[in-house]
Amino acid sequence: MAAEAGALLVDALAILTIAWIFQLVRRDRLYVGYGVIFVLVIAAGLVLLTFPVVRRPIDWIGALALGAPALLALAIAFLVLMLIYVLGQLTQVSNRLSRLTQELAIRDALDAGGTRRPRGDAAGDE
Q: Global pTM?
C-alpha cells in the first residue's frame, strides 16, 4: 500500500516535471532537443518505477546504493532538476547572443549601405 502511494507520488511529480519542461520549451526558454531528452529520460524512469517486471533485470543497481535507495533517488532528482535549470539558462544566454548578433549585423548592413542617418539629426533639421 505504501509502495503504491509512493509510486503514485513519483508519477505525479514526473508528470508535473514534464509539464514544466513543455512550458519551458513553449516559451523558448529551453531548446527543443534538451526538452525531448528530458521527457524521454523521465518517461523511461516512469516505466521503470511503475512496472516492477521491467525493473527486475536492473535491480542490481539499487544494491549498489548500499541500502539507501531513497537518498539515491533524491540525489538523482536534484541532479535532473539542476540540469533542467542550467540548460534553461544556457538556452536563454544563447538566444540573447543570437539576437545581439542579428542586431549588430543589421546595424553593419545599414552603415555599409549609407542609409543610416547620423545620430541627433532630426527629419526637419537643416
A: 0.66
